Amino acid sequence: VRNNLWFKRNDAVVVVYLALIVVAIAGVILNPVFIGPKNLGNLLEQSTALGIVSIGQAMAILVAGIDLSVGATMSITSAVLATFVSKGQPDIMLLPAILVVLLIGMVIGFINGLGITKLKLPPFVMTLGTMSIANGFALNILPQPGGYVPKVISAIFNTRITIIPIATFLWILLLVVAFIFLKRTRTGRNIYAVGGNEKTAILTGISAIKTNLIAYTLSGFMAALAGVYLVSRMYTGSPTAGTYFGLDSITVCVLGGFNLFGGRGNVVGLVAATFVLAALSNILNLAGLPPFYQYVLKGAILLITVFIFALRNNRKSTVMES
Amino acid sequence: MMPKDTEAIKNNNFSFKSAFSKIPTIFFGVIAVLILLGIVSPNSVKPEHLLDFTRQAAPLIIVGIGQTIVMLVGGLDLSVGAVITMINIVANQVIDGKPENVGIGIFVCLVLGVVVGLFNGVMCAKLKMPTFVVTLGSAIFIKGVTLVYCGGAPLGSIPENMRFWGNGFIAGIPAAAYVWAALFVVIFIVIKFTTIGRYVFSTGVNEKAVILAGYNATKIKVLAYVSAAVLAAISGLMVSAYMGTGSLVIGDDYQMNSIAVAVLGGAAFDGGRGSLTGTMLAALFLMIMFSAIAAMNMKSGDQLIIKGIIVILGLVLNNIKSK
Asked: Measured by CB atoms within 10 angstroms of the end CB, which terminus of chain A is less buried, N or C?
């Protein structure tokens, strides 16, 4: 039976927005500054990289895969970007540098897709392998944090229009594009179909290989883009800049209602999930609590969310059986 | 239900081919990497150096065996690295350098392991929540609890009587090797020769068949998660015994390395496949490999690059072999 009510079909999205409201209220109670324009700007800045990389992760999860390598892709992006342009060269050199790192991201994603489809390796192991390889290259390219990045990169991405950093507009644009791509284009629908039931999808004439390759390439591309933004925030490169983004982006997708078995999820949920995660350290900071409480909260939120979904799914399956 | 075993029963007569296929692929990897080590650093192929690998690999072997058991029942445990860090911090703080506290310290750590394992097991097996998210969630949560517990900086130390198990020798062989060897033998016997051990394999291959046979598959799975967490705790104790102090990042690498050695040893993500011997050899393989890389004076990132290539190649080879 098809459920015609949007919020019933997307109850996972509703849950994560409710969670965001709870977190926001808690933030305001702990420190009213939380809702101030300056802090909201900071929050947007802290959310943007995670938000962008999570869109890519969502593509991999939709095809019933996972991409552990996105964090390493961000690290290699950071390392390359910080060593590509040397001091004294014109700022315009930044343009080829950014094009190169975006290409690197897409190549890593494409290789992931090849390994998963052609060699039939489990996505977890394939992307674990490329994660290790990309981390290694990042360390070889830039052994210590540092390097040189033209200051103009910060002006491009981090200038705030009212309170909103330019990069956040890019994030919003990417969300809109991803939404339309997934819902309205043939390739996007194929991504859902392949993730939902690969055999059925193949029988209806969809190329599972092509669809997987597209999903993972997009994941790598988004990771590289997030890496560029990370460099622009820090003015400098680091070979471990992306370390935590791999598992964090998966956390965002799960919170946002994406099913790890593939084929289910709505990018609308990603926005709230990203803010929930980013707000935790922001609120703790404002409340004067040590930053490490964020792990307790993050872990608890993840476990509670998955618990709610599990209860719902168990109920649904018993209803179907009866 | 288990094609490989029935095949072995059918071909009762010994043949070189079946004997050959019984050897885990990674065994040849160990030989290859030993030869490589001999070429790049002839001095290190001495008995005392080679024996040192059995010490270096101890924590990885122990945690890898736990990961293998969970993968046998079709699960995955991303929390083992966080458990190792937690145990390292707790052991240091509880024991606090006093030899008489070692007993209580070890007891507390093992209880913590059981608690984490029960939580993961009940959430994954009983409530049927996705293992990846549950164990990722508990990994993050445990990391947070560890940080809150020690207030953001490790305290305490490990006294000599416990450190002996990390860097001492018994009859010329590292004490740590006895620990993992004993655990290996016990677990090997349980998995191979007891009913419950056989059901660990069958649960991963065909859970429904196990339930139809009147056995409690949920119980088996919970037990698998508990063993993984307890073995991670023991691994954490071994790390602590070797290090002597606490570190908040000591377990980070074990999260993915434990999965890498289980997979290299022959474990699959859909359960029912995996080898304790393979995992043990894979851990030794990685340690010897890292040592060879260090001897070659390569760049700092090369170790990671080679590890990544090995994980992918190893799985490709395993896939080819199982066809």
From this structure: N
Q: Other C-beta atoms within 10 Å of B320: how many?
A: 10
The residue type of B14 is: F
Q: What is the spatial distance between Cα A301 and Cα A285, in angstroms, rounded to a whole number?
A: 18
- Which residues of chain A have a CB within 8 Å of the CB of B138? 299, 303
Cβ-count burial B49-76 (b if 16+ within 10 Å, e if not)? eeebbbbbbbbbbbbbbbbbbbbbbbbb
Return the closest-CA partner of residue A15 out of A315, A304, A218: A304
Measured in residues, chain A has a length of: 322
B162–A contact, CB cutoff 8 A: no
Closest by CA position to B292, among listed B307, B277, B279: B307
**β-pairing, B173-174 with B169-170?**
antiparallel
Q: Which of the four pLDDT bands, split at 50, 70 and 90, describes residue A4?
A: low
* ipTM of this complex: 0.88
In this predicted structure, the answer to whether residue B86 has a pLDDT above a threshold of 90 is yes
Contact residues on chain B for A83, CB-CB shorter than 8 A = none
pTM, full prediction: 0.90
Interface test mutation site (partner A, options B71, B83, B141, B145, max chain A beta carbons within 10 A): B141
Q: Is the CB of A133 inside 8 Å of chain B's CB atoms?
A: yes
Q: Tell the burial category of B231 from Cβ atoms under 10 Å away from its Cβ (0-12, 13-18, 19+).
A: buried
Rounded to a whole number of angstroms, the distance from the CA of B197 to the nearest CA of chain A is: 26
